[in-house]
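Apologies for my clumsy wording, but can you show me some protein sequence, whichever is easiest, together with the matching structure tokens, please?
=====
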Amino acid sequence: MTRDKIEDVFNIFHDGSIEEEYEFKNNSLLLKISCLYLAELVNKDFEYFYIRLSNIKTFSLKPWHRSLDTKAISNISEILNFQLEIKSCDIENNIFNITCLSSYTEDIGGGNLLIDADIIHVYDETKKEITLPSLISISKNYWDKLSSR
């Protein structure tokens, strides 16, 4: 999927968590996204998805510290230690700004994950690729069922 779909993918994974497991090579980052409520609609035994971001220019976290002005963090392992929960995604100055919550420390309640990448791919647990229309359909089915209760 092209750059213009990155915002859509992160918004679909609302309430999902970015796990500490990752793989970075050839300017491509594979992340594990825990999102049980959507994953089990793909397969009742699934709990997560993978996303691959390619041609990465920026991947940093600007944490929200309760009492200090903190600097952005760009070390991937350090960022993923925050156990980030995805809330929303928008675009600011051509950078994807993913608002995240975190309960990793008492002083930091979350932050803004800033990503500049050109391509995103979504995979299920078996690493079978999922298209954006399929992901949208899975999400719509979940929210339609939830609203009809």
Notes: Residues 132-147 form the longest helix (16 residues).
